[in-house]
């Protein structure tokens, strides 16, 4: 009796299950997916801009609309050593080890050649102007280096090292 009941249930349920199997592909039940409501970022997409009137975690480096900032980092041995290391990593490919603008990558830059940091025009810039150039780059030329040199201290150390290069010291 039980075997017969099981056989009847299987015979009745089998067409129903097969019908569900074929109709699932036609109906396409849309399951809830929270992936589609999350923000997405494409590869090589720029980071979001900082909100207006926000201050970086390590403090305000400069105030927009005012003069270039003043160098708060003394050019001591620690700063110059850090600056040299960061310069070799981020700046040498374009500006060269001597800062003369003849780095290995500069040959591939057809439109705008890297600046010769030993030139009198660059020597006459203030430390703050060099800091702002490193931070924001030059449109159509040098890219902003605020991602490569994420802290203000890193950029000031590079400024101190550039000043040492300009004085003829390495």
Outline the low-pLDDT stretches.
none
Strand fraction: under 5%
Per DSSP E runs of 2 or more residues, the count of β-strands stands at 0
C-alpha Rg (nearest Å): 31 Å
Give the fraction of residues assigned to helices.
Answer: 40-55%
Whole-number average pLDDT?
83
Distance between the termini: 98 Å
What's the main sheet like?
none
Give the overall silhouette.
elongated
Order of helices and strands: HHHHHH
Instruction: Output the structural class.
Output: mainly alpha
Number of helices: 6
Describe the protein.
The chain is mostly helical. The chain has six helices and no strands. The protein has helices spanning 2-27, 77-90, 92-95, 120-123, 127-136, 152-166. Helix 2 packs across helix 6 and helix 5 (127-136) crosses helix 6. The longest helix is centred in the first third of the chain and has 26 residues, at 2-27. It starts with a helix and ends with a helix.
């Amino acid at each position: 009796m039980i075997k017969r009941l099981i056989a009847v249930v299987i015979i009745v349920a089998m067409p129903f299950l097969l019908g569900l199997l074929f109709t699932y592909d036609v109906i396409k039940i849309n399951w809830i997916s929270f992936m589609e409501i999350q923000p997405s970022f494409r590869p090589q997409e720029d980071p979001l801009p900082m909100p207006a009137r926000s201050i970086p975690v390590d403090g305000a480096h400069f105030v927009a609309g005012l003069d270039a900032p003043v160098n708060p980092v003394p050019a001591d041995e620690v700063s110059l050593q850090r600056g040299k290391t960061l310069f070799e990593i981020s700046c040498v490919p374009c500006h060269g080890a001597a800062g003369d603008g003849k780095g290995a990558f500069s040959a591939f830059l057809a439109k705008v050649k890297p600046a010769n940091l030993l030139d009198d025009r660059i020597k006459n810039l203030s430390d703050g102007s060099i800091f702002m150039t490193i931070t924001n780059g030059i449109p159509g030329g040098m890219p902003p280096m605020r991602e490569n040199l994420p802290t203000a201290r890193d950029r000031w150390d590079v400024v101190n090292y550039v000043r040492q290069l300009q004085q003829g010291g390495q």
